[in-house]
């Protein structure tokens, strides 16, 4: 299609859909028109991809994730279709700005953070690598809450993302399945004495899929992300006559649960988990049966991936369908289940490991509980006398009245992986050590990655242009080619061009900050960024204490020779995470104090941007000079914002945690600021129990001064929160070693400050960060999953195109 044809088609579609001309149409109408042109254009490839997979009996992977976080899809679909430039220019000639239409699309935010965003980066990469893989999840009516600040406190508002409809989805009524929830199950012998389950009571829910095309990067492949929505089956209508009955039923898939390890014990959440697991597994089996292949070979057609433990019931549901519905023997079914399933762990925090009470599980999915009981019984039976008794007790699935979902996922699969080298090593040596003793071959690492297309080509067009002009365009397909940039680290023209792109991005972020927060920041200052969920272990508090120190130092000596800096935060706290919300309040109050202080003006600004989400990340990341990756070593499984920031030329200040270790290896020690305890040192403290925060507080006058500022009135309006945070450090012994790492962190910050003063050197460091970020592409990651875990291959027919 050329520009002329596009304009013609666009005007025709607008006339057909709305009976309008361009000049009469609202941005929303124009957005709907463009979207509908796009979906009709790729739906042919979508159908063909689907048909090719079927005709070639292609093995497919199914990525089960309770979260997907794609953000906006308009531009990424345009880019992947190869339409972006053409449409931008064509619209411009019609007097329409593409970016005005982009603003119309709500973020699709069916995820909390890292785990959901990773799932969406994988969807982009799987399609872009031409791999046959699908997503399977829940179509929440409301995405992650919207964050507002009122009196500097976080307030949550519902995210009504579907209000104006959703262009990209297709409701597929013909593919609906029924899911049984609750009731009783007992086993009844048939005429041959075989036991079959008989269900009594409970309710039958209808799961209706909404499919969204996952468009590959200029390769004609369109895969499917299938999200399940709940409806009342016609035959059950009678039972849901009253408003309350209907409401409580429909609420089931209405909200995404905020990441909140402390309040996990919610029956609705468990029902959600079983709902999308059962619907997804049933639909895979139905498709497989339509291929008319021997059931025994299903592992050659399907790979099911369990993204964290939330979909771990896949193991039991797959067993249920094979044994109860397909009359397969337990042994054969178990062998197949293990071959089909694989599992990724995303967390080492013990309190986040998912467990459900037996009672609740019996209540929600009684047959699944029976099957888990049998899996557990056989697990113990097989190991008794072979393995150490205590080890068996520690690794079995059902313990102390609870079902341990990670145990189910490991025992019921052939692969367990972590998401960064350090994390995968810790799984083997500490967190899942007992399982490593039982199944050493199942453990492996798959370091996370990011969708380079979204995080450079779309988010940072200014830098992309410089890259094209310097190293050619091959990096757009093959991110390893970013390495070619290293040939230009002494080339002042290139260094300046990259710096100019950064400066442009900083100016537009500054404008955004001005219009959204009313705060004036200078694009000449260092933009120092910490963007991620608010969690104690991520230590936004450490960042804040350093800012307070700088503020106090500047108050004492306004002439202090520091580079002007703008500290930028973006973070949501789970609504019930009291401590995290207190941190937000205190950061906001410190911001009010600092930003209003004339005496330090120009040297220090603090901005907490409201409602951090994918779209805001796309604005912030290209404008960042410094990337804060300061979690306590051993706590952050991987991190992915660290990769996005590095890719966009930010310099990382980091602990040796998660993927930071691999980022350090990629850029070398001279191009990153590493500080703080190592994971080994942290574990030493745990072992010896010899960390005493109060000693540091009493000995170190700087720490004293800074920590006291939380409670001595230096910062207004934080009487309660200041005390609470003070107590977490001093009275409750600083669980995340903030004070222990404080001095080292300040030194690292000082070195960053110094490096920035040497402009040329800074630009070289920045260039090396971009140049070495290629290995963190999620294309690489999904290819490793495809080769090592899923055993899926691209469709050859499409390779030449
Ligand atoms: C649990 C129970 C009840 C309700 C919600 C939850 C819940 C929801 C989301 C628990 C955990 C999550 C999300 C976890 C997550 O995002 N983990 C991050 O995964 C990234 C991708 O692998 C890593 O880079 C991060 O290090 C890890 O923190």
Automatic annotation (TrEMBL):
Enumerate the InterPro entries for this protein: Glycg_phsphrylas, Glyco_trans_35, Pyridoxal_P_attach_site
| Needed co-factor(s) | pyridoxal 5'-phosphate
Q: What Enzyme Commission number does this protein have?
A: 2.4.1.1
Residue numbers bearing the N6-(pyridoxal phosphate)lysine modification: 644
Per the record, what is one GO cellular component? cytoplasm
What Gene3D superfamilies does this protein map onto? Answer: Glycogen Phosphorylase B (3.40.50.2000)
Q: What does the record list as GO biological process?
A: glycogen catabolic process
Q: Name one Pfam family in it.
A: Phosphorylase
Keyword terms of this UniProt record: Allosteric enzyme, Carbohydrate metabolism, Glycosyltransferase, Pyridoxal phosphate, Transferase
Reaction it catalyzes: [(1->4)-alpha-D-glucosyl](n) + phosphate = [(1->4)-alpha-D-glucosyl](n-1) + alpha-D-glucose 1-phosphate
Asked if Nucleus is a keyword of the record, the answer is: no
Report the GO molecular function annotations: glycogen phosphorylase activity; pyridoxal phosphate binding
Question: Belongs to which family?
Answer: Belongs to the glycogen phosphorylase family.
Q: Say what the protein does.
A: Allosteric enzyme that catalyzes the rate-limiting step in glycogen catabolism, the phosphorolytic cleavage of glycogen to produce glucose-1-phosphate, and plays a central role in maintaining cellular and organismal glucose homeostasis. Phosphorylase is an important allosteric enzyme in carbohydrate metabolism. Enzymes from different sources differ in their regulatory mechanisms and in their natural substrates. However, all known phosphorylases share catalytic and structural properties.
PANTHER family linked to this entry: GLYCOGEN PHOSPHORYLASE, GLYCOGEN PHOSPHORYLASE, LIVER FORM
The protein in question is named Alpha-1,4 glucan phosphorylase
**Organism the protein comes from:** Enterococcus devriesei
Task: Read off the lineage from the record.
Answer: Bacteria, Bacillati, Bacillota, Bacilli, Lactobacillales
């Amino acid at each position: 299609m050329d520009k002329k044809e596009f304009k013609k088609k666009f005007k025709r579609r607008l006339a057909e859909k709305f009976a309008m001309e361009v000049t009469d149409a609202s941005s929303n109408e124009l957005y709907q028109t463009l979207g509908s042109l796009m979906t009709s254009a790729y739906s042919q490839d979508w159908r063909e991809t689907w048909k090719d997979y079927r005709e070639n009996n292609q093995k497919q992977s199914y990525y089960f994730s309770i979260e997907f976080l794609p953000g906006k899809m308009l531009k990424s679909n345009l880019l992947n279709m190869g339409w972006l430039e053409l449409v931008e220019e064509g619209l411009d000639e019609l007097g329409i700005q593409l970016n005005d239409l982009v603003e119309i699309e709500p973020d699709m935010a069916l995820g909390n953070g890292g785990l959901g965003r990773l799932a969406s980066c994988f969807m982009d990469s799987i399609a872009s690598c031409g791999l046959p893989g699908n997503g399977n999840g829940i179509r929440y009516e409301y995405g992650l809450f919207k964050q507002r600040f009122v009196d500097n406190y976080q307030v949550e508002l519902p995210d009504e993302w579907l209000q104006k409809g959703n262009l990209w989805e297709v409701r597929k009524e013909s593919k609906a399945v029924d899911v049984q929830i609750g009731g009783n199950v007992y086993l009844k012998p048939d005429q041959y004495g075989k036991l079959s389950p008989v269900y009594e009571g409970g309710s039958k829910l209808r799961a209706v899929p909404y499919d969204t095309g996952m468009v590959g990067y200029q390769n004609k492949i369109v895969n499917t992300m299938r999200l399940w929505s709940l409806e009342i089956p016609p035959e059950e209508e009678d039972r849901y006559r009253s408003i309350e009955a209907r409401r409580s039923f429909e609420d089931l898939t209405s909200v995404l649960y905020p990441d909140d390890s402390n309040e996990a014990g919610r029956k609705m959440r468990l029902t959600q988990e079983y709902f999308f697991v059962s619907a997804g597994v049933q639909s895979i089996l139905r498709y497989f049966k339509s291929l008319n292949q021997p059931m025994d070979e299903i592992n050659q057609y399907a790979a099911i991936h369990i993204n964290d433990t939330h979909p771990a019931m896949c193991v039991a549901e797959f067993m249920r369908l094979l044994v109860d519905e397909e009359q397969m023997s337990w042994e054969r079914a178990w062998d197949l289940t293990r071959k089909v399933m694989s599992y990724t762990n995303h967390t080492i925090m013990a309190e986040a490991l998912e467990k459900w009470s037996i009672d609740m599980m019996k209540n929600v999915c009684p047959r699944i509980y029976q099957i888990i009981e049998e899996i557990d019984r056989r697990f113990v039976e097989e190991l008794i006398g072979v393995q150490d008794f205590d080890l068996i007790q520690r690794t079995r699935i059902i313990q102390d009245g609870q079902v341990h979902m990670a145990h189910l996922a490991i025992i019921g699969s052939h692969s367990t992986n972590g998401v960064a080298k350090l994390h995968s090593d810790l799984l083997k040596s500490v967190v899942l050590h007992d399982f490593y003793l039982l199944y050493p071959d199942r453990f492996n690492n798959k370091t996370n990655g990011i969708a380079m297309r979204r995080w450079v080509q779309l988010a940072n067009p200014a830098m992309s242009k410089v890259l094209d002009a310097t190293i050619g365009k091959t990096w757009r397909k093959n991110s390893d080619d970013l390495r070619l940039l290293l040939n230009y680290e002494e080339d002042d023209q290139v260094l300046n061009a990259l710096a100019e792109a950064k400066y442009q991005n900083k100016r537009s972020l500054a404008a955004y900050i001005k219009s959204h927060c009313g705060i004036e920041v200078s694009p000449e200052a260092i933009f120092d960024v910490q963007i991620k969920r608010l969690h104690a272990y991520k230590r936004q508090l450490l960042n804040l204490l350093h800012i307070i120190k700088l503020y106090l130092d500047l108050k004492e000596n306004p002439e202090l020779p520091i580079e002007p800096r703008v500290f930028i935060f973006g973070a949501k706290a789970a609504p019930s995470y009291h401590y995290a919300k207190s941190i937000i309040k205190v950061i906001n109050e410190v911001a009010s104090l600092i930003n209003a202080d004339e005496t330090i003006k120009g040297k220090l600004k603090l901005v907490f941007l409201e409602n951090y989400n994918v779209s805001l990340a796309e604005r912030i990341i290209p404008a960042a000079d410094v990337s804060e990756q300061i979690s306590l070593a051993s706590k952050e499984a991987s991190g992915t914002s660290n990769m996005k920031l590095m890719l966009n030329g930010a310099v990382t200040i980091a602990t040796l945690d998660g993927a930071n270790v691999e980022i350090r290896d990629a850029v070398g020690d001279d191009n990153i600021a590493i500080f703080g305890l190592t994971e080994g040192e942290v574990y030493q403290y745990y072992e010896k129990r010899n960390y005493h925060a109060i000693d540091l507080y009493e000995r170190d006058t700087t720490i004293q001064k800074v920590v006291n500022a939380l409670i001595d009135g230096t910062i207004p309006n934080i009487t309660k929160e200041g005390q609470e945070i003070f107590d977490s450090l001093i009275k409750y012994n600083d669980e995340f070693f903030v004070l222990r790492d404080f001095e080292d962190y300040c030194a690292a910050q000082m070195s960053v400050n110094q490096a920035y003063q040497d402009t040329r050197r800074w630009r070289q460091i920045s260039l090396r960060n971009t140049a070495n970020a290629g290995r963190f592409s999620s294309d690489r990651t999904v290819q490793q999953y495809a080769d090592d875990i899923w055993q899926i291959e691209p469709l050859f027919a499409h390779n030449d195109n």
